[in-house]
Amino acid sequence: MALTPATDLGPATALVCRECGTTRDLGPFYACEECFGPLEIAYDFQGVTRESIASGPRNIWRYRGLLPVPANVADTPNTEPGLTRLVRADNLAESLGLQSLWVKDDSGNPTHSFKDRVVAVALAAARELGFKVLACPSTGNLANAVAAAAARAGIRSAVFVPSDLEAQKIITTAVYGGTFVTVDGNYDDVNRLASEIAGEQDDWAFVNVNVRPYYAEGSKTLGYEIAEQLGWRLPDQIVVPVASGSQLTKIDKAFQELIKLGLVEDRPYRVFGAQAAGCDPVAAAFKAGHDVVRPVKPDTIAKSLAIGNPADGPYVLDVARRTGGAVEDVTDAEVVEGIRLLARTEGIFGETAGGVTVATLRKLIDAGTLDPAAETVIINSGDGLKTLDAVAPVVAPSANIAPSLEAFRAAGLA
């Protein structure tokens, strides 16, 4: 794949190594030639104002001037994700002893998770780079998003997932058609296989492998939206679920870009990461004071976060330490209670990753690590309908009665 004069990647100017700082021309590259460090996008932003953003579409393309996408991206077939609701969560705040809490509810995206954001940006870049197939290894939500985005774009998809994935995520990927393969192994096994396939299939864009620098930038839109929906200001603290860690690091990147562009006030904020205890390599490294993340074999109900060797793990540590945050983990039982607490206080049914985030929020408050007086945002990254098995054993109707007023009275439900 080579760039042509017609290639339009918006304000993106180069790829830069996150380890050694070496730069190279834009293209389908993800590892530094000098040190094998991960690459990310460098930009030259021009003319981005609050007004130019507000006049854009009511989806992530309102921020196209801050993303590696062509100027006409909104006009090409795509799932139009983003601009999900930021819910003021007074009931949950009261139950936890917080003064001000918001839930960024990304279950409102087209396939009901934040992955629609990153896939939309990856698809736009993949088109510009000349790829013909949209592909991915996935823990479930990404599989949904890739299959749907490819269907909408009229191109082929190729999706690979662990065979023990939740049935809901299997069905909600298969329904879109395309090539869909379940693999006997965990996510890290699937990811390794995808990397090998990517090396043989020149026209396949594995969104989180060979076009990962572009794909990851989609998570910045979460940060942009939070700031815009708060009235162009940053929250005091934010709690983000950690799988690969890319979502957390890109939200931080978004906040830093908004500060540098003068779109928000330059003020301190703290970033906290949330993991499940059954897959907590980043939390373990943070607590041990390590800079290196030691891979683990995942064993948790939070399968969307079950990445034992997270690519952005070391960078999550950097962000948490730089901002005065932390990375914490919670048990599966706490995850289930987190899901139920969010549902019964705010009417939001989050998937297991959302349960991890709520439970981690509670744990950080109880430990005195998170300031209960500071304005806080948490991320609900997906819909609870995708992980019904997590709560099915612990929720049920209040009663089963005959269709009569007498039966209702006898049940004592009035």
Describe the structure using short key phrases:
15 helices; 414 residues; alpha/beta; 4-stranded parallel sheet; 15% strand; 6-stranded mixed sheet
Provide an overview of this structure.
The structure is a single chain. The chain contains 15 helices and 13 strands. It is α/β, with parallel strands linked by helices and about 425 residues long. The longest helix has 15 residues, at about 115-130. The mean pLDDT is about 95.
Query: What is the string of helix and strand elements?
Result: EEEHEHEHEHEHEHEHHEHEHHEHHEHH
Number of strands: 13
**Approximate helicity band:** 25-40%
Termini separation: 68 Å
Percentage of residues in DSSP E strands: 5-15%
Outline of the structure:
With 414 residues, the chain is of the alpha/beta class.
Topology:
Layout: E1 12-17, E2 23-24, E3 39-43, H1 50-54, E4 86-88, H2 90-96, E5 101-105, H3 115-129, E6 133-137, H4 141-153, E7 156-162, H5 167-174, E8 179-183, H6 187-200, E9 204-206, H7 212-217, H8 220-229, E10 237-241, H9 246-260, E11 270-276, H10 281-288, H11 313-323, E12 327-330, H12 332-346, H13 352-366, E13 376-380, H14 388-391, H15 405-410
Parallel strand pairs: 5-13, 6-7, 6-9, 7-8, 10-11, 10-13, 11-12
Antiparallel strand pairs: 1-2, 1-3, 4-5
Helix pairs in contact: 2-12, 3-4, 4-5, 8-9, 9-11, 10-11, 12-13
